[in-house]
Amino acid sequence: MSLRQKLLLLFSLTVAAAVAAVAWTVLVRIRHVFEQRDQEETALFVSQFQLEFQHRSTEVAAAVGRLAASDRARAIAVEMTQSGDASQFLTDAGGMAQDAQLDFLEIVGPDGNVISSAQWPARFGYPEPAAAAARQNAFLKREELPDGSSALGLFAVRAIAGGTVRLIGGERLDESFLANLPVAPGMEIGLYGNAGSQAKVLPVTGSTVMPSLNAFDSSRLLGAAGALPDAAHYQALIAAALKTGQQVSSIVDASGRREDSLNATAIPLRDEQGNVLAVLTVALARRGMVEAQQHIRAIAYGVAAGGILLAIVFSLWITARVSRPIEQLAQAAEEVAAGNWETRVPQRGRGELNVLARSFNHMTGELVSQREQLIQSERVAAWRELARRLAHELKNPLFPLQLTVENLVRARALPATEFDEVFCESTATLGTEIANLKSIIARFSDFSKMPKPELERIEAADVVERVRALYESAAAEAKIRIVAEVAERSMNISADPELLHRALSNLVLNAMDAMPDGGTLTISARPAGDKIELSVADTGKGLTREECERLFTPYYTTKQYGTGLGLAIVQSVVADHAGSIAVDSRNGEGTTFTITLPRFEA
Question: With a threshold of 0.85, does the pTM exceed it?
Answer without folding.
Answer: no
